[in-house]
Amino acid sequence: MTRARRSRAGRRPGGASTRDDVLVAARAEFEERGYEGATVRAIAARANVDPAMIHHFFGNKENLFLVAMQINLDPAVITDAIRSSPRDEIGERAVRTFLAVWGDPKVRGPLLALLRSAMTHGAAAALLRQFVTRVLLSRIVVVFGDAPDAALRAEAMVSQLIGMAVLRFVVQVEPLASASEEEIVALIGPVIQQYVPPS
């Protein structure tokens, strides 16, 4: 009688590729269901691994969430787009850049998951706050220069842009969800422009 080792069907041993597969599955589950709705069992099934493998790599669901939700975005993409614009075109350029960022699936997935999860989970709210303050606000304030209310103006601008993203990409309210980029830029660009300090 041979002593061939049998592995359970559909389950793979741990390794670098297995860890990556878990992260891909986790991002998809968190994006679709938010933190509370996603389960370790569902993530494992999606990654085709045993749930114990998730605990082996990440310890628990919250640690997995923190690793999976790292946003792959170069802050200079946003800063440079605004800084290089003529003063009276910053609003239009900001909207166009924000839509382009959301159009990148590698960025959109984690952002969607963060927005959905931040309402119910502290770690998600903290990650979203960190992204907003470090990636967006701090750099926009620099562009706005010495205006005494630069921080407030930057926060008002970002709140408008995030609100647009929630309705378009998360809640998917029509007709905003299916409006063209040019329609959105023409409509919202002038609204964003009002937050730009006068030169």
Automatic annotation (TrEMBL):
Pfam families: TetR_C_16, TetR_N
Domain HTH tetR-type: 16-76
Ranges annotated as DNA-binding: 39-58
Coiled-coil regions listed: none
GO molecular function, one term: transcription cis-regulatory region binding
Top-level lineage group: Bacteria
Keywords: DNA-binding
Entry-linked InterPro entries: Homeodomain-like_sf (IPR009057), HTH-type_TetR-like_transc_reg (IPR050109), HTH_TetR (IPR001647), Tet_transcr_reg_TetR-rel_C_sf (IPR036271), TetR_C_16 (IPR041678)
PROSITE patterns, per the entry: HTH_TETR_2
PANTHER family referenced in this protein's UniProt entry, alphabetically: HTH-TYPE TRANSCRIPTIONAL REGULATOR RUTR (PTHR30055), TRANSCRIPTIONAL REGULATORY PROTEIN (PTHR30055:SF235)
Protein name: TetR/AcrR family transcriptional regulator
Organism: Phytoactinopolyspora alkaliphila
